[in-house]
Structure formats: C-alpha cells, structure tokens
C-alpha cells in the first residue's frame, strides 16, 4: 500500500494547525508534573482554574474583537470600575442580581463609548481603548477616593462559592466558553466577524454592515468584562479600584497564544481556553518552583513576542498557500 507524500504532508499540516496548541498544553502539563509533584494535585488544578477564570472570560471578549480587526486595551480598567460600582451597589441595596446587573451595565456603556469612537469618529481601536483605559481607572479611583471597599458579605458567592464540586468562577468560564463558541461558529454575526477581519472591503461589498457588527462586538465584550468584574471583586473579597492591572494584556496573551491572529479573521473559543491554561499553568509552575518574580515578567513578555512572531509567520504561510492555489488554478 503506497502512501501519497503530498496527501500525508497536507494531512500533517492540517493536524498541526488544528491541534498544535493542545499538544503544547499537554507537553506543558507533563513537564510541569515532573518538575513539581504538587502540580497535578486536585487542589492546585482547582486553584489554577479559579485564578484564570477572570482573564479567560476577558480573553473571550478580546478574541471576538481581534477576529474582526479590533482590540480592547481598557478591559482591566473597565473591570475595576464596573466591579467597584457593583460592590458598592450591593452594600447599599443587598441585592446580588441588581449588583450583577450594574456591573454589566457599566462595562457595556464603557464599551459602547469605545465602539462609538471607533465606528462613528474613526478612531483607531488602540487609541480609543487606551483613552478608555485611563478614564475608567480614573473614574474607579475617583469614586472610591482611592480606597478599597471591604466587608462585602454575601457578594463573595460569585468568586468563592461552588456549584456541586466545581468552583463558581469555573462554571461561569464554561458557560461563556460555550456561548462564545456558539456565537463564532453558528451565528450570522460570528460569520460576519470573520469576514470583516479577513477583508473589510470585501465584507462591505458583500453587504455586511461593518460598523453595526463592530459595535455589537464591543457590546458583547462589555458583557464579558462586566461578568469578569463581578468574579474578580468577589474572589478577592473586596472592591479594588486598583485591581486587575494589566489583565487586558493577560487576556490578549491567552487569545494570541490560542491562535487568534492579530491580523484578524482567525480565532476560536477553544484555542483561547487552551491559551489561557498555558499561561495559567506556566505562571503556576513558576510560582511553585519559586522563580524570581522579575524573571517571570521577562518570560511573559517573551511568550507574547513569540506568539506574535508565530502569528506573522503563520499568516505569511497561509498567504503563500493561497497564492500557490490561485497560480495553480490559472495554469490549468
């Protein structure tokens, strides 16, 4: 039985592109378990899952935005603003549902402004969300006068509770993973995002309302940021106006490592989860082995650089393959 070399190479290339991130995750788990025997204990895995839940939910929002050619540098600051306002409302009213609603409403409003700046005033997403980053953090500090909010009582149920034997934040992560996967894979809106990120001019020519879809993408991101704000404040048992600093970069890192292309038009919810666990497990094993905190920052920066380089090379490879296919078709 002869094996066609071309078919095998095509199969291997497809397999590598689809599952390389899972292979990296499996190798990291195996190596980490050898380095430290405590790594695979149920307690440690539960702690890691709880810790990355917030940044992974943020990463789902970043994935949705990046796929359509956008990004959000304000998510950590908006998380802090929505979270402290939610905690404050809970302390005044004692209503968990209303406090949850307030967090989402604040984050959605902030992202509406982001979307308005990008779609109406044609501000580059980098600049628009960078401005929101400063405004939201300033608003959180102004509202609390720079002071943390303590004694939040039953509010901790969101971030410290359990549903069965599963930590509540992990349940939220699983729910929003499924919703993000469904939105990207099985909705017209999701297909529009890929089209806009892949080629915005072609998307306009095909009748897609680009500005409308970009605005919706920001609003969906706002919902995710609001939920993350509730989980974060609940987990740390206080309202921290200076909390979640650089969380937007952790979310971006998880998304990019998970295969979302900075160029737009490429990304999956599953890849983002895998990327988030790679970042979480890497941080965890460095902490377990007492790696210097400054060195940890260098490692995180290097990971971002490598992920972007890989993204650029992958894009170049895809473009060469497309060009080769077109050239081959013309010759025929």
Structure description:
The protein has a single domain, classed as ABC transporter involved in vitamin B12 uptake, BtuC (Orthogonal Bundle), CATH 1.10.3470. It is 77% helix and 1% strand. It has helices at residues 5-35, 42-67, 75-93, 96-119, 125-144, 157-160, 168-186, 188-198, 200-205, 210-236, 247-257, 269-288, 293-331; strands at 162-163, 166-167. A two-stranded antiparallel ribbon has the order 1-2. The longest helix is centred in the last third of the chain and has 39 residues, at 293-331. It starts with a helix and ends with a helix.
Count all strands and give the number.
2
Computed structural class = mainly alpha
How many angstroms separate the termini? 30 Å
Largest sheet, described in full? 2 strands, antiparallel
| CATH architecture call | Orthogonal Bundle
Strand composition percent: under 5%
Q: C-alpha Rg, in Å?
A: 21 Å
Task: Give the low-pLDDT segments.
Answer: none
CATH topology: ABC transporter involved in vitamin B12 uptake, BtuC
Number of helices: 13
In the sheet with the most strands, the strands line up as 1-2
Helical coverage, percent range:
over 70%
Return the domain count: 1
Question: Shape from CA axes?
Answer: globular
CATH class descriptor name: Mainly Alpha
Q: What is the averaged pLDDT score?
A: 90
Helix-strand pattern: HHHHHHEEHHHHHHH
Oligomeric composition of the shown chains:
single chain
Summary of the model, kept short:
This protein has helices spanning 5-35, 42-67, 75-93, 96-119, 125-144, 157-160, 168-186, 188-198, 200-205, 210-236, 247-257, 269-288, 293-331; strands at residues 162-163, 166-167.
